[in-house]
Every structure is written in structure tokens, then in C-alpha cells.
Amino acid sequence: VLLHSLEQPIAAPLRTWAAGCLLLSFPMTYVVSRLAAARGVRSGFALELTASFAAFAWILWGMVLFSQSPTDSEVAPLLFWSCFVQCAAALTIVTLFTALLLCSTTCALLYTCMSQAREERC
């Protein structure tokens, strides 16, 4: 997709965004695993956490790019829509998992409170 869009003039830096997404995926996983093997789990965890925050910020920046470049979908449709779908899917998955985490935590707390209340009555 990146190579196909090299000849197309686009207003937003979508190529840079797509290249950044590629760098934040498999190469970053390799770097984290190498660091964890060389320096220990704590260093690997710190780098993984930093990379996750960077990836989330990168996704948010991508949404800003897509909202500010309406003509790029006509000039480079393959690049624009592949990046847009990736960005929208990532944000949807993050939102879904966050909501599920909040629901499961709430259910666990309610279950614990109800169990303790039952034991106090007996």
C-alpha cells in the first residue's frame, strides 16, 4: 500500500503514519523481547508499556489526520481507507476491551459485596 501510493500527491502525511504503524508492530515486539532477554523483565516491561502508550498516541494522531484530510480519500483511496480501517478497528478494540474490563471489575465487586453481606446475616 505504501509503495503503491508513492506517486500520488496527498495532503496529510498518511505515508508517515502508515510507516510508523509498521514500526510500532513487529519490529517493536522484537526489540522488546531482545531487551527483556538482555536486561531483564522489568526493562522489557517498561519498554513495552512505553511502546503501548506511543502506539495509542499514534492511533489518535491518525484519527486527527483522517479528519483533516477529506480529499486524500479521493487521491489515494487505497492508502487512506486501509489506514482508516486500521485506526478505527484499533480504537474500537481498545474501547471494547476497556468496557469489558470495567464491567467485569464491577461484577466482581458486586459479587464480593453480596457474598460478604450474606455471610454477615448468617
Question: What can you see in these coordinates?
Answer:
- This protein is an all-alpha fold and 122 residues long.
- It is built from five helices and no strands.
- It is flat, with a radius of gyration of 21 Å.
List the topology elements:
Blueprint: H1 14-23, H2 26-39, H3 41-68, H4 72-75, H5 77-121
Helix pairs in contact: 1-3, 2-3, 3-5
Spell out the key features of this protein:
5 helices; mainly alpha; 122 residues
**Would you list the SSEs in sequence order as H and E?**
HHHHH
The count of β-strands is 0
Tally of helical runs: 5
Low-pLDDT runs of 5+ residues are none
The percentage of residues in β strands lies in: under 5%
- Cα distance spanning the termini: 66 Å
What helical percentage do the residues reach?
over 70%
Query: What would the principal axes of the Cα set say about the shape?
Result: flat
Structural class: mainly alpha
Overall radius of gyration: 21 Å
Oligomer: single chain
Average pLDDT reading: 82
Largest sheet: none
